[in-house]
Design brief:
The chain has 25 helices and 19 strands. About 7% of the residues have low confidence.
Length: 629
Amino acid sequence: MSRRIIDSNKKKLESEEGYVIKHGCGLRIALCYPNTHEIGMANLGLHTMYDLFNSIPDVSCERVFLPDKSEMPEYEKSRTPLLSLETQTPVRNFDVVAFSISFETDYLNMARMLQLSGIPVWSKDRNHFHPLIVMGGAASFLNPEPIADFTDIIAVGEGEILAFQLVDAIVENETKDEILLALAGIGRGFYVPSLYDVIYNDDGTVFDYIPNEKTVPRRVGRALASVNPKEGTLRRAIKRGETELADFLVNQEIFCPSTSIWSPEAEMGERLLVEISRGCSQGCRFCWAGYNYYPPRVVPAKDILAKAREWRHKTNKIGLVSTAVCDHPEISTILRELRSMDYRISVSSLRLDQISDELLDALVESKDQQIAVAPETGSDRLRRVINKNLTNDEIVDICGAVFDRGMLTVKLYMMVGLPTETQEDLEEMFVLVERIKNRMLEAGKKFGRAGKIIPSLNGFVPKPNTPLQWDAICGEKELKRRIKYVCKGLSRIPNVEVRFMSARIAHEQALFSSGDRSVAKVIEAAARYSGDLDKALRETGTDPLFHTSRTRSYDEFLPWSIVDSGLSFEFLKTEHKKAQKALSSLPCPAVEKCTTCGVCPSTWLADAPQSLIQIQPAKIREALAAAAV
């Protein structure tokens, strides 16, 4: 093994606080984030799963990251296998290798990490001597099929629910086959690809998935926390009839998804990150996070504030993580109390129609000189297509309120290539940015300075389980032309700094978002060729346009249909037809027993008593284990 690699890992560890090293445990889990340490340690999902796994008795969890570009040559030269961060143990020596994947583009990195570990990439090439390969994270909600043939188990749902069921199945069964059957038989939360045969039509589309074991369900339901992300093992506690025990544990300890390891070298590493809510009620038709995290749920203010008090001695910076910060019903209390603790508050992105004076005051106090908002397009008509119910006049007025507080730099998230987009729609983007810039300069006069408008352009990529899943991505050449046209037009406006994602990257995302199992061979080859996707496509004879650039009919069985998201077909179809007519829809009401989209009756544990909602999952697990002795 390379001493340089080991020393590099130890140096990263020395800069951190809060990591856990447990010796002599019966089950060892390598928690892999398929990107670099700097990026991975900014991911709350990784922090949450690390905390949960290490809270379980006789289970140890260590982190593993993709080597950065400066480290990769040393791995290849020394032939050092991929190592864990905490104890520098080869990944192949763990019992379970669990990948937390947030973005489809990291599928390539997953395959590369398996290759670096000396673990066969294809599940069919592994035996009982190899670790179990588990995949979870946000990507599991979307379309796990492109990497289904790499994985033994895909966790379809939120980790707070599934971590303990996974560990139970591994501990309670002796062989790999028994573990896989036990998890698949649950029917919700665990997808075992090897237990399904994929049947294709003559035209290459998927006909159906056929279980090859009698106890395996036809479709796999996803598992969500019933009321808020703290539910954890609620289903398990209720199933065992331990309601008194669960009642006793209410509020005994705080479980709030947040930073668990202090890692100042990571992106946003000097900031406490706290998830205050999950999901969004607005129903923007392109947004996978909104639809795939239905119903929207919140973490109670008291838990958020308790976590903030716990970390205040470490930092005075806090980031509130949410797709809709101002939708939190207790946001005023949260902001007021955080300000009283002298926290400098930041948010990832703001919904334009929910920006409050109180939040702006908090951001100004925090000396935050830039905020990010998402008008998505310059066209009022296109905004109705995607169900973003704001007009250009409203956007300019809201940005004006931001500028009047002295925050003169605004980042604008915008998309190119949306369904039904016309040349006129693109030109309206110039008009909107010009108006926002003029409003910024007007406000800047009283502050004696000017700011910047930063449009960030991305190509539209259709996402599974959204109303636009049937649409094709704009062709690569045409998308490139549109992005170039918009960039050129915006660059002519003073005080505007344009950033953009290439059309090529958008098409790569579309391939991994919409592909079926046949795309796995492309990913494996590209990983071997250091990410050269063109070479991989040529070698495998794969036509990417089949997966990305054709409009799908409502009758087609979509590759991701193996996972039952809970969203009804008729609901998504209706929303798609309304998009084609540029008709708006009302937000999700997020009320119990609503049947509009189908999610709540299918995934929400609506009969759970309120006293069981706020529970520390690790304490339940420990108490149940102790009670069983």
